[in-house]
Amino acid sequence: MNDKMLDIIGLADEKYLREAEGTSQIKVKHKRRISAKFAAVAAAAAIMTVTAGAVAVTKLSNKESVGEFYDSSAVSKMEERGFANGAVSENSHFSVTLETVLKDDYKLMPIVTIKPLDEQAEDYLAQSGEMQCPITYYSDTDECVRSCVTCFAQDQYKKGDGKLSMRMEIPFVSLHNSIDKDRPLTIRLFEMKYASIDGKTNEASLFNGIELKLDDHKEVKSTKLYSKKGNELYLSEIGFVALIPYPDNGSFWNGDLVYKDGKKDKVDDISSDGQGLGLGEKQNIGLSLNFKTLVDVDNVESIELMGETYTRR
After folding, report:
1. DSSP summary character for residue 32
2. Closest by alpha carbon to 20, among 135, 129, 107, 130?
3. 303, 235 in Cβ contact below 8 A?
4. Which of 10, 41, 63, 263 is within CB 3.0–4.6 Å of 16 for a Cys-Cys bond?
5. pLDDT tens digits, residue range 199-211?
6. Rounded Cα–Cα distance for residues 220 and 189 (Å)
7. For the chain, where are the alpha helices, taking DSSP H only?
8. How far from 311 is each of 123, 233, 262, 269, CA to CA, in Å?
9. Bridge pairing between strands 300-305 and 256-259
10. Strand pairing class (232-236; 222-226)
11. Which residue has the higher pLDDT, 147 or 275?
């Protein structure tokens, strides 16, 4: 799987999840070798989930940043259907543009462009370290939602690059957590310390005055498919969630999407990354995969996955 951004988040065991409001953090349980591109998550991932401040909204082209995570066909369809957001939040250190926010019944997926505005910001983006877990809040009440957010970057930021594009994923349902998907959300980064390239310790006040409100989003098309065993697979334009145990051997990448005209797409070819949602009593139910294209769900006849065929009832 060359340059796949795959990590299955290890929610099958509670030791992989520490839940504490303001200090939440996910440790990723690797199921296969991570590409160098995926390693970019590091400390830079935290920046895109920052805290409150003035937001100037403009409609900007999201083609370049979104194109790092979706193919050209998907990017064109998003633009045609009005998926561009363009909200900008900035302070003296960073300018953060919310390029687009995609939503289905299981997740919210913002894509952000981060631009450093001074040397301190450059140092932060270029450093390496643990990925901090952004904190999600309901925008209408400012109530903290105890849910961890995963972040992805295609390339590690190097000083002088000028910008970093990142994609976030906020699961509505995961181990011990549930978010009301119909309420507006805001994401923030809790205060922390970080080590800069020269080894000095700095406070994360670099993010003061920045916030990302996610109430302007587009909900994509979706449907439900079922196997003969009664297992459910939720399919949307941006991914699927199969309510089955997720395996350790990566066999789900060998599946197929079968279309009404007989053509097929291999799961491996159209997917970018995935995670386990940790649902069910055994905490290993809910295999979630994200597509790097927009799938025409109305044209999908069936999905073949791990020896089962899923069709509409």
Report:
1. S
2. 135
3. yes
4. 10
5. 555 555 677 777 8
6. 27
7. 63-66, 72-80, 119-126, 267-270
8. 50, 9, 14, 21
9. antiparallel
10. antiparallel
11. 275
Angle, alpha carbons 212-218-224 (nearest 5°): 125
The per-residue b/e assignment along 291-310, b for 16 or more CB within 10 angstroms, e otherwise, is bbbbbebeebbbbbbbebbb
* Strand ranges in 29-148 using DSSP code E only, listed in sequence order: 55-57, 84-90, 94-103, 107-116, 135-138, 144-145
Strands (DSSP E) contained in 172-263 are 173-174, 177-178, 185-188, 193-195, 201-203, 212-213, 218-219, 222-226, 232-236, 239-245, 256-259
Residue for token pair 């520490």: 18
Give the count of beta carbons closer than 10 Å to the beta carbon of residue 215.
11
DSSP letter (8 states) at residue 247: P
Cα dihedral angle (27, 100, 212, 6), rounded to 10 degrees? 0
The overall pTM is greater than 0.70: yes
